[in-house]
What we know:
With about 190 residues, the chain is an alpha/beta fold. Helices cover about 40% and strands about 20% of the residues.
Amino acid sequence: xxxxxxxxxxxxxxxxxxxxxxxxxxxxxxxxxxxxxxxxxxxxxxxxxxxxxxxxxxxxxxxxxxxxxxxxxxxxxxxxxxxxxxxxxxxxxxxxxxxxxxxxxxxxxxxxxxxxxxxxxxxxxxxxxxxxxxxxxxxxxxxxxxxxxxxxxxxxxxxxxxxxxxxxxxxxxxxxxxxxxxxxxxxx
Length: 188
């Protein structure tokens, strides 16, 4: 079976904060490393870190240089390999354009969010992956801005845990669960 063409976009703008205000969130070192390692494990081709802030882009570049060419590359070659997947994009549109060029097909952006209602099931999304080049769009802060949901793009059903409706996973954990559901080996 052919490996599906999948990329992740971790969006830092446009994002909402706890009050619902439109903000730009800060890039975190843990997100960079953990998303890259998870992506590499599941055969994801790209991890886009989407931030319009030049200072944040420079921070990511410094971190990537250390692990790709600096001391980190010889200290932990497996991490260096995973971090080769990371690309900085100033906007989601830039990430979509790059992913189209890399994958050779029109990207299928699929939005995610703990607060979203309904959405395409993981099973259906997995089926469609055989035919489409997926860009899984993840939010930081308190989630993707409403303007992204107004684009008419597909929305993935939220992850539902056990318990009392508490649903506030770290984005790294949510990404791992989603990728396992979409690309992992399904047990019989």
